Amino acid sequence: NRLIAIDLPGGPALVDALRAVWDAGDAALVLDGRLTVSARHDLMRRFGAAAVIDSSGTTADPSGGRPMEDGDALVVPTSGSTGEPKGAVLTHTAIAASARAVAARLDIADDDHWLACLPLAHVGGLSVVTRALVLGTQLTVIPAFDADVVASSDATLTSLVGTALRRTDVSGYRAVLLGGGRPPADRPSNCITTYGMTETGSGVVYDGLPLDGVELDIRDDEVWVRGPMLMRGYRDGPDPFVEGWLPTGDLGSIGMDGRLSVAGRRGDMIVTGGEKVWPEPVEQVLLGHPDIVDAAVVGVEDPEWGSVVVARIVTERDDLTLDEVRDHVRATLPPWAAPREIVRVDEIERTALGKVRRDLLR
């Protein structure tokens, strides 16, 4: 079995290429067309692709690539929000298990219709395609998110991230899956928050409750997950599993109602003056300020406080002051969560699915 890279924009040609790769018994690596040519070639070399399918046809790699195991279906790069992406290997069995679990939770019927509008190089977008292929559900794939196309589509199901949701009308959908960063607090009633990662083959927890077949555990405040839809392992890294359980690196808790609450990545927590601050709630409050277009929060080492909360903000107001920002945050959150410094930037570095690149901000 070989690994075949697919370097095509989202659309019917990409879906056909994926079908062809699977029909040949090979596994696929969908490349992100927004990356530079050298970055795409680097991914192919790192993950051992034997050939690439692009608009000119199929080109074999002289090295022959590295073989895959029987049953492997996909190699999906992790989001890379904390550094270099790794390659999660998803099997056909795992993809089918994920599709069936989602179908059961959403009560998917023969007349449902998926719209794929997120980047297909990431599991959040690609899982819409694989889910439809496994279940035989009608599928429409567009090259990139387009607010007008999403709003006017006759599809019944789609998957979005919070930034995309704020830009379009989803009232016509039966269900909208929300992944990526923390979703808007005022999301429409047909939107379902999902928790998952590349390693789990897309979302495995919907509105706090695990899908059928998914087990959750909290160990030392960290979320651990187990289930049939998880990856087989990394293409290029050590085995992260412990007796079948995957430690996610996220800190969280499970309430009396069985719902999972995720606070954030273990390394994202800011300890300032002995108090704990999670960046995402502060970012949500900042985004509620009428003069702040986008925001990201990180901790910066400080000799007096240990760390201090620093907010990078995108704003069109040149005279927006630190005191105004602090007052706005303190109206909702504890005083220690208020930024001690603001830095004006032109844009916030994010992954394709909207996650803040905190590794770059630090």
Brief overview:
By secondary structure, the chain is an alpha/beta fold. It has 9 helices and 23 strands.
Features:
single chain; 362 residues; alpha/beta; seven-stranded mixed sheet; four-stranded mixed sheet; 23 strands; 23% helix; globular
Task: Characterise this structure.
The two termini are 41 Å apart. Helices cover 23% and strands 32% of the residues. It is α/β, with parallel strands linked by helices. Strand 3 (51-54) and strand 4 (57-60) form a beta hairpin. The strands form six sheets. Strands 8-7-9-10-11-12-13 form a seven-stranded mixed beta sheet. It is built from nine helices and 23 strands. Helix 3 packs across helix 4 (123-135). The radius of gyration is 21 Å and the shape is globular. The mean pLDDT is 92.
Secondary-structure map with pairings?
Layout: E1 3-6, H1 12-23, E2 27-30, H2 37-47, E3 51-54, E4 57-60, E5 72-77, E6 87-91, H3 92-106, E7 113-116, H4 123-135, E8 138-141, H5 147-152, E9 157-161, H6 162-165, E10 175-179, E11 191-197, E12 202-206, E13 209-210, E14 215-219, E15 222-226, E16 233-234, E17 246-254, E18 260-265, E19 270-272, E20 275-277, H7 279-287, E21 292-302, E22 306-315, H8 322-330, E23 341-344, H9 358-361
Parallel strand pairs: 1-2, 1-3, 7-8, 7-9, 9-10, 10-11, 22-23
Antiparallel strand pairs: 3-4, 5-6, 6-16, 11-12, 12-13, 14-15, 15-17, 17-18, 19-20, 21-22
Poorly predicted runs of 5 or more residues: none
What is the structural class?
alpha/beta
| Portion in strands | 25-35%
Shape verdict: globular
Widest β-sheet, arrangement of strands: 8-7-9-10-11-12-13
* Number of E-type strands: 23
Overall pLDDT score:
92
* SS field, number of helical segments: 9
Helix content: 10-25%
Q: Characterize the main sheet.
A: 7 strands, mixed
The termini sit apart by 41 Å
Radius of gyration: 21 Å
